[in-house]
Amino acid sequence: MTEILDGKAVAKTINEQTKARVAKQKRPVTLAVIYDPSNDGSQLYVGMKSRQAAKLGIVTRDIPISTDATTESVIQLVEELNDDESITGILVQSPLAKGIKERQIFSAVAPHKDADGLGATVQGMLFGDSLENYTVAATPQGVMTLLAQYNISLKGKNAVVVGRSQLFGRPMFALLTNADATVTLAHRYTEPTTLKALLKNADIVVVGVGIPNFIQGEDLKKGATVIDVGMNVVDGKTTGDVNFSSAQGIAGYITPVPGGVGPMTIATLLENTVTLAEQHQ
C-alpha cells in the first residue's frame, strides 16, 4: 500500500503558523520579487506567491524587468533592494531573460535578505552545514519539512537525487547529506543503466528534471519514498517526472503532482521571509 505525502495539507499548517508569526512583527514584512514578465510560467508563479502572501499578511513588491535588461542592470536593482530598509526579503524568479547570468544575480542578493537561499554565500553555509542562521532554497527545504512531517527516517538511508540545478538538486543533496543519508546526485545525463541501478537500491528518491514520466514504477525499490519535484503539462494535464500510476503499490510513500511539493515550495518561501524579519527586526 502506497501512502500519499499530502503537501497541500502540510503547507496549510505551515501557512497558518507563518500568518501568526507575521502578525507579531512590528514592521510590515515585505518580499520583493524580480521576474521576467515575458515568461508565462513566471507570471503564473509570481501571481500565486503574491496571492498566498497577501493571505498571510506579507506584502509583495513584484518588479518586472524590462526587455532590454542586462546582468549589470538587474544587479544594480538587487543592490538597491539590499539597501532598502523596507524590504525584508528578495526573490529572483527563475528563469530571467536569455543572456542574463542568473547565478550572478542570485549571489548579488544580500544573505540577510535571501528569501530563497540561492546566493553563493548561503549555499556555501548549507554545504558547510554551518551552525549560523541561513536560508535554504524553498523547494528542497519544503521536501525536508514534508519528510519530517511523516516521520520518514533519513539517517543511514540510501538516497538518490535526480537533478542538479542550483534551485533544487544541489541544495537537496546537501540537506540529505546533512541529515546523515548516503546520497548520490544523478541527472538527466547519467547513463540509464547506472541510474536504474542507483534507483533500485534507493530508499529515498527525489527527482526534478522536467521530463514527464522520466521514472517508472519498475525502476524503484519496493517500499521506497518517492518525492516528485517535476511539474510538466501533457495533453493539458499536469504531471510529474514519475509515472504516478505505475509507482502505486511499489513506492512506500509518494508525492502527487499537483498537490505534493508545489504547495510546500510556496509555503516555505513565505516561511523563510518571516524568519528573515524575525532575525533582523
UniProtKB/TrEMBL annotation:
It comes from the Bacteria. It catalyses: (6R)-5,10-methenyltetrahydrofolate + H2O = (6R)-10-formyltetrahydrofolate + H(+); (6R)-5,10-methylene-5,6,7,8-tetrahydrofolate + NADP(+) = (6R)-5,10-methenyltetrahydrofolate + NADPH. Residues 138-280 form the Tetrahydrofolate dehydrogenase/cyclohydrolase NAD(P)-binding domain. The keyword Cell inner membrane does not apply. Pathway: One-carbon metabolism; tetrahydrofolate interconversion. One of its GO terms (biological process) is methionine biosynthetic process. NADP(+) binds at G163, R164, S165. Keywords: Amino-acid biosynthesis, Histidine biosynthesis, Hydrolase, Methionine biosynthesis, Multifunctional enzyme, NADP, One-carbon metabolism, Oxidoreductase, Purine biosynthesis. Belongs to the tetrahydrofolate dehydrogenase/cyclohydrolase family. Homodimer. This is Bifunctional protein FolD.
